Amino acid sequence: MAFGLPDSWVWDFWLLDDGTQYHLFFLYASRALKDPDARHHRASVGHAVSADLVTWERVADALVRSDPPAFDDCATWTGSVVRHPDGRWFMFYTGSTLVPPSANIQSIGYATSVDLLTWDKAPGPVLTADSRWYEKLSDSLWHDEAFRDPWVFPDPDGNGWHMLITARANHGPADDRGVVGHAWSPDLEHWELREPLSEPGQGFGQLEVFQTAVVDGRPVLVFNCLAKDASTARRATGTTGGVWVLPTPSWPGPFDVASAQLLTDDRLYVGKFIDDRSSGETKFLAFVNHDGNGQFVGEITDPYLARWQGQTLSLTPTVGDSTQPGFGPVIATAQGAMPR
Questions:
Q1: What 3-state class would DSSP assign to 27?
Q2: What is the DSSP secondary structure assignment for residue 298, as one 8-state letter?
Q3: Phi and psi dihedrals of 235, rounded to 5?
Q4: Please, which residues have CB within 8 angstroms of residue 254's CB and are 6 or more apart in sequence?
Q5: Is the dihedral of CA 96, 100, 101, 105 positive or negative?
Q6: Which residue intervals define the domain Glycosyl hydrolase family 32 N-terminal in the entry (predicted)?
């Protein structure tokens, strides 16, 4: 019963529990494009709801690209949703725009809603890459200006809000500049970009789609990186790509991403953890990147049960004995230092 659309590919997503329903916001693009790689320049943000994280009902789309010229006139990409103390919901998302001939510049905007169904974009962008700390397209070392995937969460001490951002440092080897970008806000509307929460040179060209989560009672940082986007040195160790997990003693960091462990191989991508209200257990979902033969799939798994067994984080399917036709269960492990 994995979530998929017959006429569209589905990939990056983010989850929200409003206390009554679970919400799934996801990127999708028509299969009529024929080439799965073309989906990135046609992405819209869809929306589905569920009572159990298994059976999903699609509802009205959340966001589509703006008319040009705009920071999001190519596509709307990955984000997150949080609730303001005044009751409004804020969706932070990536805006993508193209510059000739086809380079992609990313920046961050937000939209608000009172019911999670109808979203109104604020003027944007509210954050862009700043050359004081972050690589720009003009540096000509990467295929795009990476500044995307805003993950927003409240400060643990009640001091405003933090945002983690997929970004690249303005120094270091070209294939090893991936960092945890960082911004802070007092009110969700006004944002101050800050220096990264990790250093370049830790093995990744980019760290995609962050999540801070408490998994089976222990805090972790989640990010995603495929082998092709890892550094040459990391690839030389034989490491594959997929979903990465870093046990961490505190948020908002700093983070030693070099010690992150691979949780799944690259058959799954953009992993997300969420607490299951009915069972009290931590569940894990991801999108199916390929079928084992290299063919892109583009749908979202049923939930896995996530559980620590000593210093090993295990994932066990919860629906049947597999999550996709032809895709066997993944029993994955992430081993590393336990948070103190």
A1: strand
A2: -
A3: -65, -30
A4: 180, 197, 198
A5: negative
A6: 21-225
SS3 content of the chain, % helix, strand, coil (to 5): 5, 50, 45
The answer to whether residues 114 and 120 touch, using CB atoms and an 8 Å cutoff, is no
Amino acid at 329: P
Contact between 282 and 227 under an 8 Å Cβ cutoff? The reply is no
Rounded to the nearest 5 degrees, what angle is found at the Cα of 133, between the Cα atoms of 247 and 256?
15
Its pTM stands at 0.94
Specify which residues 243 forms β-bridges with: 224, 264
User: Which CATH number do you get for residue 82?
Assistant: 2.115.10.20
Residue 125 lies in a domain: yes
> Which amino acid type is present at position 193?
L
Contact by Cβ (8 Å): 196, 182: yes
**210-266 residue pLDDT tens:** 999 999 889 999 999 999 999 999 999 888 899 999 999 888 999 999 999 999 999
- The chain-wide mean pLDDT, for the chain, equals 93
